[in-house]
Amino acid sequence: MKKIFLFLLLILSLNGFSQTDSIPSFVKDSLDSYVNRALTDWEIPGIAVCIIKNGKVVMMKGYGVKDYDTKEKVDENTLFMIGSNTKAFTATSLAMLDADKKLSLDDKVTKWIPEFKLDNTAAGEQAMIRDLLCHRIGFRTFQGDFTYWTSNLTRSEVIEKMGHIKATYPFRTTWGYTNAAFLTAGQIIPKATGMQWEDFIKSRIFDPLEMKSTLALSKDFPNAPNKCSAYTKSEGKLVKIPFCYIDNLAPAGSIGSSVNDMSHWVMMLLANGKYNGQQVVSAGAIAQTRTPQSFLGNGGTIFNEGHFALYGLGWFLQEYCGRKIVSHTGGVNGFVTSVTLIPEEKLGILVFTNTDQNDFYEALKWDIMDAYFGKPYRNYSKVYLGFDKPRFDQEQKKDQALKDSVAIHLKTELPLQGYTGNYFNDVYGNMSVVLENGALKMKFSHHPDMYALLESIGGNRFYATFTDPEFSKAIFPFHVEGGKVKSVTVKVADFVEYNPYEFTKK
Fold first, then answer.
1. Is residue 379 exposed (0-12), middle (13-18) or buried (19+ Cβ within 10 Å)?
2. Could you tell me the residue range of the domain that residue 465 belongs to?
3. Following DSSP, what letter does each residue of 324-368 receive, concatenated?
4. What are residue 239's DSSP bridge partners?
5. Is residue 69 domain-resident?
6. What is the DSSP letter of 10?
7. What is the C-alpha to C-alpha distance for residues 234 and 450, in angstroms, rounded to an integer?
8. Do 441 and 373 fall within a single domain?
9. Distance (Å, rounded) from C-alpha 365 to C-alpha 194?
10. CA distance 190 to 155
11. pLDDT tens-digit profile, the chain (506 residues)
């Protein structure tokens, strides 16, 4: 009887092992063809994927090329800019300092940065470090980013500019994704430790996790030997673009890394802070980052029901198929990436791509999760393509209609010289409109390497095309009273900022 009991225990334990450690057929048999098909379907030059389960790498692989010109293959050590997946490093760093009693996440921001102000004076005085890390200071998503993104502003100037923004929402009432808030939080680290943000995360996170190739700052990315080029779409075609320099917002999005290095980060997070037997981050600090702070909605996806969508500190939190999902995405010029943790399953998923014009980086993670959760294969990539293609086609038609309007040389209300001059916006600062070789150009003081070409579509409306395709195209209306320009409304791509800017003529 005893032998039978022991035999049953052995069978049960083996069954348990096979259920938790077995590789789903989608991952084992279909993943390569799925990803290779996506390279063509989505026009993605290169993709890197990694799956971690129970402390081990299940698969780690590069697909496609780093650059269409060189045709060099992506491998597991190829660097991608990870964008806002940087935020989890910043939030974790501050949670570590909280655990070390070097600061409190509930400290007022002004305790560490006395010059910090918001347009809502009381909000600026009451804002805590925690508020910065969970996007609840009242700004709309991306509000202010046109002023900062790839600009020549310093970190301290970005923080000063925040004080000029009129918040869209009342303080602590509505979640709004705020890159400058994460910069501000990151700038508290040198105040508390004497180390710059980039030095702290290298010393306390990158080095102990053996993330040997990972770069904290975007300025170092172009010199990396094994890196992807950046791609976006312009005029309906995929084009290579310069790397973006966003070190003035570094704690919000400047890290460059590989799936190999990032697998160490994910392993540590799934092991409650341990890596190679060393407690790199305290379990309490990790728990802080995963504690809900802001409500986003009821959750759910296209096919499976969810019951909440929340934000912790540097992480999105949601329920999916009865599991808690801890995840984030990152998007910078030419790159979109995703990092996903399912702690109770000890499952981690990394998907990196080097074009910012795809949703595959999100689609793949859902199909991998469904495979591990025993759900039907949905082919999220095909579903997302079905959503994206009509939208892309509609944008192309709209763009062509505007080009057709430009081509018939519709008359402006004023002579072109009447629109020239110096303009000012309280948040952004100075902008000028100049007439060069018969063409109107709009030039921005904090983006000296970029301008917008203004082409008449009749009256006081102009079709604006930015020389940086990330800022896209839009209609800029000039507001004229008594035959003189009073102001102009400037709108950049939603990828940069949703809010328009009103520039008043000086």
1. middle
2. 408-505
3. EEEEEEEEETTEEEEEEEEGGGTEEEEEEESBSS-SHHHHHHHHH
4. 232
5. yes
6. H
7. 16
8. no
9. 39
10. 13
11. 333 333 333 333 333 333 456 899 999 999 999 999 999 999 999 999 999 999 999 999 999 999 999 999 999 999 999 999 999 999 999 999 999 999 999 999 999 999 999 999 999 999 999 999 999 999 999 999 999 999 999 999 999 999 999 999 999 999 999 999 999 999 999 999 999 999 999 999 999 999 999 999 999 999 999 999 999 999 889 999 999 999 999 999 999 999 999 999 999 999 999 999 999 999 999 999 999 999 998 776 777 777 889 999 999 999 998 899 999 999 999 999 999 999 999 999 999 999 999 999 999 999 999 999 999 999 999 999 999 888 888 888 888 888 888 888 899 999 999 999 999 999 999 999 999 999 999 999 999 999 999 999 999 999 999 999 999 999 999 999 999 999 999 999 999 999 999 999 99
Has residue 397 been placed in a domain? no
Are residue 140 and residue 235 in the same domain, yes or no?
Answer: yes
Is the whole model's pTM more than 0.85, yes or no?
yes
**CB-based contacts of 225-228 (< 8 A; 24+ apart in sequence):** 226/66, 226/75, 226/77, 226/78, 226/79, 226/258, 227/66, 227/78, 227/79, 227/80, 227/256, 228/45, 228/46, 228/66, 228/67, 228/74, 228/78, 228/79, 228/80, 228/335, 228/354
Same domain, 329 and 413: no
One domain, residues 138 and 264: yes
Number of domains in the chain: 2
Q: Are residues 216 and 309 in the same domain?
A: yes
Residues 354 and 490 in one domain: no
CA distances from 350 to 77, 88, 330, 340 (A): 13, 14, 11, 7
Q: How far apart are CA 70 and CA 80, in angstroms?
A: 17
Amino acid (one-letter) located at 497: E
Domain end: 364, 390, 416, which one? 390
State the Cα–Cα distance between residues 43 and 396, nearest whole angstrom: 17
Cβ neighbors of 42 (< 8 A, separation 6 or more) are 355, 357, 358, 359, 360, 381, 385
What is the H or E stretch that residue 318 is in? Answer: strand 316-320
Residue 68 CB neighbour total at 10 angstroms: 14
